[in-house]
Amino acid sequence: MKPLGIEGAWVDTPRVFTDSRGRFHEWFRKERFQDVTGQGLQLEQANCSRSVRGTLRGIHFASVPPGQAKYVTCVSGAVLDVVVDIRTGSPTFGAWEAVRLDDTTHRCVYLSEGLGHAFMAMEDNSTVIYLCSQGYAPQREYGINPLDPALAIDWPEDLTPHLSDKDAAAPTLEEAERQGLLPSFEQCGAYRSRLLSNA
């Protein structure tokens, strides 16, 4: 696992074993994860989504505490996975980082509590699975429009984004900040410190 440019996010490229029968790899190992991040991943929910080419999901986040950390991989097809720093007061506030997740490299992305998450399907039937530290709770779940021009996320130009009505109507980052929806860097750091001390 290697840290991304946004504090609290990592990318993992597992070792894949291939022979005449097919392929095998470990996509998550608790001890290895904990050695790198310094914390465990509390598992409350596991999600699976299948998307047609061009589907754009996100930017999703949950209020902190407790937030929702995610460990994400693509088991079929390919997606462009994007982590967005939406934490007010963060030195990288408004920055984003993209990682291609696919069924060839089997990369995984981990984003800690307080970060925004989105992905775009680059092939039909792209299937993403992710482990979540907290279950879905609509009263503390929010979104930011992934096409916010101020964020200027570099989505693939050859794809027409297909969004849900909810994601298309989500506020921009600036609007979400004005509405008081965004977690602060300080809140997230304090919460993560508590998790680290309990690891």
| Total number of beta strands | 13
- Tell me the β content: 25-35%
Low-confidence stretches: none
Helix content: 10-25%
Mean pLDDT: 96
CATH architectural name: Sandwich
Shape summary: globular
CATH fold category name: Jelly Rolls
Task: Enumerate how many helices there are, as a single number.
Answer: 4
Q: N-to-C SSE series?
A: EEEEHEEEEEEEEEHHH
Distance between the termini: 18 Å
Name of the top-level CATH class: Mainly Beta
CATH superfamily: Jelly Rolls
List the domain count as a whole number. 1
Task: Provide the structure class.
Answer: alpha+beta
Strand order of the biggest β-sheet:
1-2-10-7-12-5
Q: Determine Rg (CA atoms, Å).
A: 16 Å
| Largest sheet data | 6 strands, antiparallel
Report a brief summary of the structure.
By secondary structure, the chain is α+β, with helices and mostly antiparallel strands.
Structural account:
The strands form 3 sheets. This protein has a 6-stranded antiparallel beta sheet with strand order 1-2-10-7-12-5, with no helix packed on it. The longest helix is centred in the last third of the chain and has 13 residues, at 185-197. It is α+β, with helices and mostly antiparallel strands and 199 residues long. The protein has one domain (2-194): Jelly Rolls (Sandwich). A hairpin with a 5-residue loop joins β1 and β2 (9-12). The mean pLDDT is 96. It has helices at 30-37, 165-168, 173-178, 185-197; strands at residues 2-3, 9-12, 17-19, 22-24, 45-51, 56-62, 70-76, 78-84, 96-102, 108-111, 116-121, 126-132, 141-143. The chain has 4 helices and 13 strands.
